[in-house]
Amino acid sequence: MIRTVIFDLDGTLLNTIDDLTDAGNYVCRHNGWPEHTVEEFKHMVGHGIPNLVAQFSPEDQRSPLLILSTLSKFSDYYGKHNLDKTQPYAGIADLLQTLKSKGVQLAVYSNKADEFSRSIVEHFFPGVFDIVRGKLPAVPVKPDPTGLNALLKELDACRAKTLFVGDSDVDIETGHNARLRACGVTWGFRSQEELETQNPEHLSDSPEALEQWILENL
Questions:
Q1: Helix, strand or coil for residue 105?
Q2: Is the peptide bond preceding residue 143 cis, with omega within 30 degrees of 0?
Q3: What confidence tens digit (pLDDT) does each residue in 177-214 have?
Q4: How far is residue 165's CA from residue 211's CA, in Å, rounded to a whole number?
């Protein structure tokens, strides 16, 4: 039985990769560094923005002080442009509406900075989610389950009736670390092969297929 579904954000609910790529490459151009392709950025995201910044920075520009400076530039640009190209994946809005109409508790848990996560989700899905939580200071990023465990407590959710949904091996590992069932989605930034390395309880190729599977397990 599923009564609560917690979604990853980037690559699961929203296709954010073009805005993330544009922000990263803006910083690279500003600093005279090599730029990166969208495909390269797809493999950089997923471990939080500081980690993303470190990955697109040249190796000799990754000291803690330099990363802080680059992170500030990235966050400033991304904060102003994170809605330029970002869009929900086709079928996501209908999926969420259906689940909500069935009384399923919905939440978001992301490694994206909390302020960005909350503002972007509220823009595209106003009033849909019970809680939206991004990366908070002093809370380890996924796959550490600390933040997810705190979210479960805040939701008063039963672990046995909660599903975690994401598009990467990190998401599947996070769900399992929190003793939850985890579903991988193949429409996001990572491959099915990568998802399968973490043995998800289910894989879905479309929001429609995910909806059908969840409804069968309510």
A1: strand
A2: yes
A3: 999 999 999 999 999 999 999 999 999 999 999 999 99
A4: 12
Cβ atoms of residues 22 and 98 within 8 Å: no
In terms of Cβ atoms closer than 10 Å to its own Cβ (0-12, 13-18, 19+), residue 129 is: buried
Q: C-alpha distances in angstroms, 84 versus 55, 60, 188?
A: 23, 31, 19
- pLDDT (tens digit, 9 = 90+) per residue, 141-174? 999 999 999 999 999 999 999 999 999 999 999 9
Return the amino acid letter for 214: I
The dihedral sign for the CA sequence 206, 188, 94, 112:
positive
| CA dihedral (155, 181, 137, 92) positive or negative | negative
Please give the pLDDT value at position 132.
98
Do 131 and 109 belong to one domain?
A: yes
Q: Are 117 and 108 in contact (CB under 8 A)?
A: yes
pTM, 2 dp: 0.96
Beta bridge partners of 14: 10, 88
- Cα–Cα distance between 117 and 109 in angstroms, integer? 9
- Domain with 69, as residue range(s), is 17-81
Same domain, 110 and 184: yes
Both 31 and 90 in one domain: the answer is no
CA atoms within 13 A on the CB side of 203: 17
- 175-197 burial, b for 16+ CB within 10 Å, e for fewer? bbbbebbbbbbbbbbbeeebbee
Round to the nearest angstrom and report the end-to-end CA distance of the chain. Answer: 5
